[in-house]
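My convention is simple: the sequence line spells out the residues, with the fold written below as integer tokens. I include a record here:
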Amino acid sequence: MTRSPDHPMKLLIVLHHRFELWNAPPWFPEGLRREFPDIDIIHLTSYDGIEQHLRDAEILIAWSLRPEQFKAARKLRWIHSPAAAVHQLMFPELVKSDVVLTNAREVHGPVVAEHVIALIFALAKEIPQAVRLQQQHVWGQETMWRGRPRPRELMGATLGLVGLGSIGRAVAQRASALGMRVIAVREHPHRELPEAVEEVFATSEIGTVLQQSDYVVLAAPLTPETRGLVNASRLAMMKSDACLINVSRGPLVDELTLAAALRKHKIGGAALDVFDKEPLPEDSPLWDLENLLITPHTAGLTEKLWERHYALISENLRRYLAGEPLRAIVNKQTGY
């Protein structure tokens, strides 16, 4: 793929977020410029002036894009989202277009899976309760043993995965290595079974997975079908000592219904890393639930984040220039 020196291929990076880690560090565009000197790489740290650059950009790296901006980007051929979730880009104009959309699911999978295992250990070994007792200077051995659920082993416990994408598969590998039995539910159950997963069920059979699982992990994308997935009827299917973990997107869970179930001890506990509104409002009833472990959307945090982003994006740029298929392409019809 060649371009005139007077009209080089243009790559526009527009990443602006209040949280420092979500913004590309200065070395990121500098590295791309050194590696791809024939590409005109523009890095904006705010959305000011984006329109003039969008007009002739062929490639865009951004969290989001408004429909009117997309309409003005007539030369755009490829959008890359540094997030795993791309629901904010699923507007009709983009979905119907020939523009290729890729995401960062390969970047986030391993580190989010580590976080899931940390949450499972914390819930199984009652770590939050131990921390509370420590702060009160209380030797709580008997208190922790009398609680429900009691401290327990992971070996032999059943982990139910909702979603078998890059995060789900990475969780399955780690859980299986700990001796857990892993079952899962996904939209296409007859696809090749990952080695670490014992059995896969169709989405219509999610009740079977919920009924069998000691730990239920939500790792599915946010789509119209998964929004509100965990509601009162689904929570009622879970074991009374089972725990729910969500590292996907907040809207998969009906938070008020979950809060009521936890308050009444209808399930053993929960751990949430994502929420319907972020930051979680100060008046949310979730804060005060002792059987709920809250992490503030930190599952994907790692000092290696932008190294991983760079590896994926530079590999895809090489593929794009060579006319080869890109990695991590999003199916715009399904949204993942």
Summary: The domain at 10-106+302-322 is CATH 3.40.50.720 (Rossmann fold). The longest strand covers residues 181-186.
